[in-house]
Amino acid sequence: MMSSERLACGWLHKLLVLLVKLHFAFAEPLQPLNGTGCTAKGPASYILVFTGHWSPQSFPKQYPLFRPPAQWSKLIAASHNRHFRLWEEGSSASPGVQSFAEVGVTVELMKAAKEARKKRTVGVMYRTAGIPNGIGHSSTEMLIVPRNPLLSLMVKMIPSPDWFVGVDSLNLCEGNRWKQEVTVDLQPYDAGTDSGFTFSSPNFPTSPPENITKITSQMPNHPANSFYYPRLKELPPIASIKITRQRRTPDRQTSISNHILPNSINPQRFSATPLDCEVSLWSSWGLCLGPCSRGGVRHRTRYILLRPANAGSPCPELEEQDECVPHNCIKKRQ
């Protein structure tokens, strides 16, 4: 009997210890399951406004004026957690990113997002209307939940080989609070799937594909590139987004999703980007004109590749002459 009583007491002691451990474990604050550290109570409503600053004053080099003129595609955005990436600088473009960056088609991106939603790593996909000019606005309303507090988005530049602007995994939550307002200036990115240098370059697939990279005033380091401005340390913002938290009221029924804002909202002003004149190499010297021994001259020319703009360096002389030398003379046949 004594041994059985001791055995029963031992099991009761172990059970008591286990219950105490469970009590303290659940008494601690619950950790977020999304890996982002967001412990906000309830969702947050936001208005996302995309603004294009793509103007001939800020980006005068090869600025697209027609067929087609400078414009922006529809915006595509996703709320998600850290287990999903719409796109990422330094990584290769997914088939969906490639299709969107090259031709503006969202089918593959939407398929990938639907698969991710099944795994609960993506919340909601959002889209806005395209903007038919380089300068303009579009907006959409978003509802962000604590499980998916990150925001990623893309907008294609039209025309371009595979260039786009966007944000990657922007966190709208800080601890247990939602951010009230976020503004981000946007720079162009190259998806790494097309090797065109200019806005209107023909289709030229990159083989093998390269990683997504940011386009700067000196990268790619080639004078033919539409964003090559060697005098600038950095490019002015070509677009921006502003995300503002909204108060949700029961009587609010009007949605402004995919609404293009009125023209009364002025775009942000940036200083004009100077564009220096670019000329070709000199041609070969021509034959001598006039007497070869005295008074004869020869000529060479060059032509303008790119006219200056916005107080850029003026073009140099396009024609040059020089005095003839004996080996330039054409000897008469006897």
Automatic annotation (TrEMBL):
Q: Where does the record place it?
A: Secreted, Extracellular space, Extracellular matrix
Q: Which GO BP terms, alphabetically?
A: cell adhesion
Instruction: Provide the Spondin domain boundaries.
Output: 34-223
| UniProt entry tagged with the keyword Metal-binding | yes
Q: Which GO terms describe its cellular component?
A: extracellular matrix
Q: Which residues constitute the signal peptide according to the record?
A: 1-27
Q: Which UniProt keywords apply?
A: Cell adhesion, Disulfide bond, Extracellular matrix, Glycoprotein, Metal-binding, Secreted, Signal
Keyword Glycoprotein attributed: yes
What domain of life does the UniProt record list for this protein's source?
Answer: Eukaryota
Protein's UniProt name: Spondin 2a, extracellular matrix protein
